[in-house]
Design brief:
The protein has 279 residues and is an all-alpha fold. The protein has a single domain, classed as MetI-like fold, CATH 1.10.3720.10. Helices cover 79% and strands 0% of the residues. It is extended and about 70 Å long. The termini are far apart.
Length: 279
Amino acid sequence: MGKTINRALDRPMTIQEVYEARPRLWWLYTLIVLIVASLLTWSGTAVKFSGFASKGIEVAKGVGNGLLHPNTSLLFNLTEEGVPYQLFQTMAIAVLGTLIGGLLAIPFSFLASDKIVPKWIAVIFNAVILVIRTIPSLIWALVWIRVTGPNAFCGVVTQSVCSIGMISKMYITAIEDIDTRILESLDASGCTTFQKIRYGILPQIIPNFISTVIYRFDINVKDATTLGIVGAGGIGAALIQCINSSRWSMVGSYLCGMVVLMLFIEFFSTKIRNRLTRG
């Protein structure tokens, strides 16, 4: 009898047996569903729909008509009022903001990683990064407008500061995933902290850093449009003026330009990220 039991235990279980022996967690799934339903119900009490605005349908129709019938002369106008110049300024703000933020995020991320510095220093810089990430980009823009005035430089400063918060967080994640055995070998060889960073850390994290900067650039191009609405330069300023004056064909021109620009950026950024991922 004992031998029979042992043979049965030694026999590999079939798929059906494994399925029947699975943990019975129906109560946990039921609890999760109840919690989610409760959160949805509670959230719905804070949202009240009071109908569309008096001119809401008219604005929606105007935007749709503008997209279908854009002002083609504005699309190819090379002056400061034209779509190409506005897109170029938006791109310039995003490029500068991303590069400055990406470079400044490097020391922040290293100083916020307890693998590199003592824990108390890492806690301080993590708190600084958290403060930067907590404040929305529009609030940063409104603050810097008071300092620099409403211009494209305000957009660059705002995007640089906002980029530090997000890029530093992702840099820290990349640093935490490095192979520490290389650092231990360098440490045993008597290398300094700078040498460990230069030869043990940077070769492992540079592809992740570049991919993060490219991803942030995608976000900054969209944010540059939003920041322009509050006077921080870019195509957003011209767009909001056309919306306020109901010039829908011009609105359609700016939106079409943004769509083409984002498709162009998305195509090339995806190619570069895939190349970095696959080597």
